[in-house]
Amino acid sequence: MSEAAHSPTGPDRKIRAGLIGAGGIATIAHLPTLKAHQDRVEVVGIADLDPDRVGQVADEWGIAGRYRSAQELLDAESPDLLIICTPPSAHKDAAIAGLRAGAWVWCEKPPVLTLAEYDAVAAEEAEGGPYASYVYQHRFGSGAKTLKKQVAEATLGRPLVALCNTLWYRPHAYYDVPWRGKWATEGGGPAMGHGIHQIDLLLEVLGEWTEITAVAEKLDREVETEDFSSAIVRFANGAIATVVTSVLSPREVSYLRFDFQDATVEVEHLYGYDNSSWRWTPAPHAAEDLATVESWSPQENVPSSHRQQLAELLDSMEAKERPRASGEEGRRTLEFIAALYQSAETGKSVKRSELRNAGTYYTAMHDESHIYGKQG
């Protein structure tokens, strides 16, 4: 169990943030996001194994504290918020260190490598904080918020059919980075590292999944993991979805489609959306009520983004409440991916109710006896 959380609020007191990892995701996404919230948060330190990289990023962004490890940063700065931007294999230890030091944690995807690691992190949380939350920014846009409300209120009728496609392209050279494409360091292939965002948005909209039947294969890239997967998923509300994830697709797209009794709702984008990415199409019988159809679209335009997720996280810190994209919400998405791999590797459907907190697909995402690219 963690130490008592720091008190991030007070008169004119900003939340103190530290970053672990000085790579691309830190500079492209997190540091601009933190700057956008500089009225509420200040970056007090950054850590990375590469001191030259730390110095370069710290100079560019005006960060005083420069460290070689998460523990050094935590000991020196006592941040209220620890943001983890390392490769996936380092997520668990950094998250646990942060929570034990009393810092809230915001960790890049995938959350950790296994369900067992997820539970180990969760065991360090305390009531009222600190909590560990994860970067699932696509659920935070106004399009997702509007559609989730419509599902809850049955505005569009019952959900029936859904598509969830993450069709991206990563060239062979992408996997020259030593930790990519390996079970021990990335935790999985595109289902784990790329499609996880769209999968999380699918689950955010449709809710609890109950069964998955999947295939996963290595078709072209020189990796240990899959480079393609496809799954059929049943939901507790009766809907059935097809989920396809690929890093072999030259025309890249992130596409979700939800077919309800009274409408089709689609979002098409690549790495993030705003309201212009969404489309509501009424069924013929519903199109007659134009006033109702016009009310379906979001009334505000909030893009999916790290910025919006951080805003809500800071609110949760100040209220000492569990943030979204944490706890059971975060685990649900990781359970889905574990079950996808289990189904693909065993050739059997996997029911969520049958998942166990023990065994191969709890302590790993992969049975080592299953070799991708060797089937048929």
Biggest sheet statistics? 8 strands, mixed
Distance between the termini: 48 Å
Broad structural category? alpha/beta
CATH architecture of the largest domain: 2-Layer Sandwich
Q: How many β-strand stretches?
A: 14
Task: Report Rg.
Answer: 21 Å
Strand adjacency order, main sheet: 13-12-11-7-10-9-8-14
Any idea of the CATH topology of the largest domain? Answer: Dihydrodipicolinate Reductase, domain 2
CATH class of the largest domain: Alpha Beta
Per CATH, the superfamily of the largest domain is Dihydrodipicolinate Reductase, domain 2
Question: How many independent structural domains?
Answer: 2
SSE ordering? EHEHEHEHEHEHEHHHEEEEEEHHHEH
Count helical runs.
13
Q: Uncertain segments of ≥5 residues (pLDDT<50)?
A: none
Helix content: 25-40%
Shape: globular
Strand content: 15-25%
Provide the residue-averaged pLDDT.
95
Q: Could you walk me through the main structural features you see in this protein, from its secondary elements to its overall organization?
A:
The chain has 376 residues and is of the alpha/beta class. The chain has 2 domains: 94 residues, NAD(P)-binding Rossmann-like Domain (Rossmann fold, 3-Layer(aba) Sandwich), CATH 3.40.50.720; 200 residues, Dihydrodipicolinate Reductase, domain 2 (2-Layer Sandwich). The protein is built from 13 helices and 14 strands. An 8-stranded mixed β-sheet has the order 13-12-11-7-10-9-8-14. The chain has a 6-stranded parallel β-sheet with strand order 3-2-1-4-5-6, with helices on both faces. A hairpin with a 2-residue loop joins strand 11 and strand 12. The longest helix is centred in the last third of the chain and has 20 residues. 48% of the residues are buried. The mean pLDDT is 95.
